[in-house]
Amino acid sequence: MGKKINTLINNYIHSFEEKNIEKTLSYFTEDATWIVPQYKIKGKKEIEEYILWLFENIKELTFIYDGIGIMAQGNKAIYQNIFRATIGNDKVSIPTMFIFRLRDNKFSEQWIINNWFEYTKTNPFNTHIGEIGSIIHIGWNRDYSNL
Questions:
Q1: What's the total number of domains in the chain?
Q2: Does any domain span residue 13?
Q3: pLDDT of amino acid 88
Q4: For residues 96 and 116, is the Cβ–Cβ distance under 8 A?
Q5: Domain range holding 123?
């Protein structure tokens, strides 16, 4: 199953980098949960809204293999990468970890853990961090107070 999961994750990442919403969504179950540090997004419809919002606000996004790359065991996998993108006028490079749980060869859960500290070391807070913070933390306006 390890090679299948590697291929699945690689194809998913490729569709995300191409900003292909239909293909990207096809990797999620209908009841999938996507957890980022700020939000717990539930269901394919909310995931679609969030991804569309990301696609509109983040330019030139890519994911570069880093560290362990993809490691899979059973129905779980980890993908370590460097997230590179243009947000506002800033080019960012952020160490990131995706954690997946699969069901029926689709993602039923996806956790994303970022190291924003790496970004702030090279981009002082007085550049576009406010804009980036708005985009990543505040801009997608959902109530997730139930976390």
A1: 1
A2: yes
A3: 77
A4: no
A5: 2-133
